[in-house]
Design goal:
This protein is an alpha/beta fold and 276 residues long. Helix content is 41%, strand content 14%. Strand 2, helix 1 and strand 3 form a beta-alpha-beta unit. The longest helix is centred in the first third of the chain and has 16 residues.
Length: 276
């Protein structure tokens, strides 16, 4: 699908950029945007030219949560948007993760390529959910975050109550969920919710520099396998995790990317990985 309405999609230098594009609504989430994000992630995952994916927002926001008009319609019992685009389901050909990762938003973890959030503005509610399902989070130093759910009479959705404690710890998660307070960028960095901060005007340059390092310096086969080991490991016992890592290492030693990585190191040249 190339005829997107609520997102923009572009590929350059092996990097796919998915931009939530409802700037007049701070990129508030709609069913259409949900479906288009998933479709774009599927497209990037299936594209052999793409080695890293960035998700960001247009204008002043990353994603300000669910569209208020949609929430109002739901509260009054009205029908939804009627947009027939799937919003859940593991990415075809993606990572082999437990069944729960095929759910709405959780499917992002099954994307077989590095997924980077470039959080350029408020990430509220489902906007925060999208951010935490990305592998790495960059944020503008002026960004605000909030779980928001409790202030709307809702509860943490889409696995947030499972994943967020694994990122920032249980008590900090409870703080953010109980209060639905606004979390400023500096505190988000301090507690580990955000990996990198940058001034607003430098954010995308920093994100693309990071992505370029991934696409030029490391094996796409290695990033795929490592990502699968990390996400599977979140719910594994240590013996299972170690066993899978040993098997994955044995397979890596037979791969073309391993041979190329050693050759490039010995010849003191940049690697030319193929992902095989």
């Amino acid at each position: 699908m190339s005829d997107y309405q609520d997102i923009l999609y572009a590929v350059e230098n092996h990097i796919a950029t998915i931009t939530m594009h409802r700037p007049d609504r701070m990129n508030a989430m709609t069913n259409r945007m949900n479906g288009e994000i998933r479709q774009a992630v599927m497209t990037a995952s299936d594209d052999s030219d793409v080695r890293a994916i960035i998700i960001t927002g247009a204008g002043r926001g990353f994603c300000a949560g669910a569209d208020v008009a949609r929430l109002s319609a739901t509260a009054s019992g009205a029908e939804g948007e009627g947009v027939d685009l799937p919003v859940h389901g593991a990415i075809p050909g993606g990572l082999d993760l437990p069944d729960g990762f095929d759910a709405k938003y959780a499917y992002l973890a099954t994307c077989p390529k590095p997924l980077i959030a470039a959080i350029n503005g408020p990430a509220i509610g489902v906007g925060l959910v999208i951010a935490i399902y990305c592998d790495i989070r960059f944020a503008s130093d002026t960004v605000k975050f909030s779980t928001a759910f409790a202030k709307r009479g809702l509860v943490p959705e889409y696995g947030m109550a499972w994943l967020l404690p694994k990122i920032i710890g249980p008590s900090k998660t409870m703080d953010l969920i109980y209060t639905s307070r606004m979390l400023l960028a500096a505190e988000a960095k301090d507690i580990g919710l955000v990996d990198y901060l940058a001034p607003s005007q430098d954010l995308m340059n920093k994100v693309y520099d990071f992505a370029r390092t991934i696409v030029t310096d490391v094996s796409p086969r290695s990033t795929r396998v490592a990502k699968q080991l990390v996400y599977r490991g979140l719910s594994q016992e240590i013996d299972s995790a170690v066993g899978e890592a040993i098997a994955a290492t044995e397979a890596a030693l037979k791969s073309d990317d391993f041979k190329e990585g050693i050759a490039a190191w010995q010849e003191k040249r940049p690697p030319a990985f193929t992902g095989k």
